[in-house]
Amino acid sequence: MSTILIIDDDSTIQDVAEAILKNQGHTVLKALDTLQAERYLSSSCIDLILLDIVLPGQGGLEYLMDIRNRHPNIAVIVMSGKVRTDLLPVKKLAQQFGAVCILSKPFTAPELIESVTAALKSSCN
């Protein structure tokens, strides 16, 4: 299966996503901020990133641009519980920044699995 990096400053979201994804057979790495994420990106083969939009320090969309520039082959799902991800301007902005999918928090297990499956196939709506 795939190696998925979860970048979110909410450890509860990380733990829930990790449990769901490990149950699906994925390897999961977790980072609370972009500095921790950089360590994984420089030392691990990552297939997919779940990236929170609102992060301490460097924001998620800004970091998404960095990821796209340095790791263009890694699929990225943008997540947020503070920004309404169902609004068309937010979807367009995230896609322009290079996200393949957008996921609202809190999410259900089926929503996460569906988004991850679609992102790994590059077939998100």
Automatic annotation (TrEMBL):
Modification 4-aspartylphosphate, positions: 52
SMART domains in the cross-refs: REC (SM00448)
CDD domains listed in its UniProt record: REC
A Pfam family hit: Response_reg
The keyword Cytoplasm is assigned to this record: no
Keyword Transcription: no
GO biological process, one term: phosphorelay signal transduction system
Domain Response regulatory: 3-120
Entry keywords, A to Z: Phosphoprotein
Cross-referenced Gene3D superfamilies: 3.40.50.2300
Record PROSITE patterns: RESPONSE_REGULATORY
This protein's name: Response regulator receiver protein
The organism of origin for this protein: Gracilinema caldarium (strain ATCC 51460 / DSM 7334 / H1)
